[in-house]
Each structure stands twice: as structure tokens, then as C-alpha cells.
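Researcher: I'd like a candidate sequence for this fold, 142 residues long. If you have to choose between options at a position, lean toward the conservative one.
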């Protein structure tokens, strides 16, 4: 039976500096940030192209969080993220269950150099990847 595919590839800009936290006695790291991507749609009333922003919640654990910290990624930096979607629930301060969906990072690549050189990546061009071995579920603190 086909189990499906849960893969995400995003190229966009950091909305703000990543937040890096350490958990537990092991000091396992977690990086969280928002990534902005842009979509172009046709405005229904004018028929003109219209650009809209999409905001994606991103989380990285363990070695990937360490890479994000060490690469000194900052607001407005262009990056590529590969990962998977994960939906989870938690209780907010009012004890109401809230669902959230985020991208769990498997690979990340800073495109700062390409951004400063004006290089555009498109479907036909290969993109360099930083590959770090997949993390285990034990590295996720929740």
C-alpha cells in the first residue's frame, strides 16, 4: 500500500533572526524561524498579476539547529529549506487546544552568496545542499 510522500522544498527569506534554544541535560538545540516565500496570482478584479507573501513556520533540531546558529543566518537572508510537514497540538495559556503546522528541517542551504551575486535559481539549475544525517525523534523536545 502506498504510504504517501511528506517532502517540502522552500526558497525564501528569513522574516526575522532565528531563535536558538537549548533543552535538557544534553543541551540539544532547537532553531525556530519564519520563512517568507512569494506567490504571484492574478487579481480577479483587475486581471493584473499580484504578489502575495506566504509565511512558513520552520523548526530545526539538533545538528541542523547548530548549523543554523553557526551559519549566522539573519533576517532577510535568502535560504533553501528541505524537510517535512508536521502538525501538532498544544494548549495555549487559556487551556484551549491549538493546532499548528510547521516544516521540520532535514537540510538547509544559505543562499547569501548567490543572493549578493544576483544568481537566480530556477527549476533547471541544480541547487547546492548541505546534507546532515537525519535526526532521531529523541532529538525533538516535544
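Model: Candidate sequence:
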Amino acid at each position: 500500500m502506498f504510504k504517501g510522500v511528506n517532502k517540502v522544498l522552500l526558497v525564501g527569506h528569513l522574516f526575522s533572526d532565528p531563535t536558538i534554544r537549548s533543552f535538557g541535560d544534553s543541551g540539544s538545540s532547537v532553531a525556530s524561524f519564519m520563512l517568507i516565500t512569494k506567490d504571484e496570482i492574478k487579481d480577479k478584479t483587475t486581471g493584473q498579476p499580484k504578489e502575495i507573501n506566504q509565511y512558513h513556520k520552520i523548526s530545526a533540531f539538533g545538528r541542523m539547529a547548530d548549523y543554523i546558529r553557526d551559519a549566522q543566518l539573519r533576517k532577510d537572508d535568502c535560504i533553501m529549506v528541505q524537510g517535512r510537514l508536521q502538525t501538532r497540538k498544544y494548549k495555549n495559556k487559556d487551556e484551549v487546544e491549538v493546532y499548528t503546522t510547521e516544516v521540520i528541517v532535514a537540510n538547509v542551504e544559505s543562499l547569501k552568496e548567490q543572493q549578493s551575486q544576483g544568481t537566480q535559481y530556477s527549476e533547471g539549475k541544480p541547487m547546492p545542499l548541505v546534507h546532515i544525517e537525519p535526526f532521531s525523534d529523541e532529538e525533538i523536545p516535544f
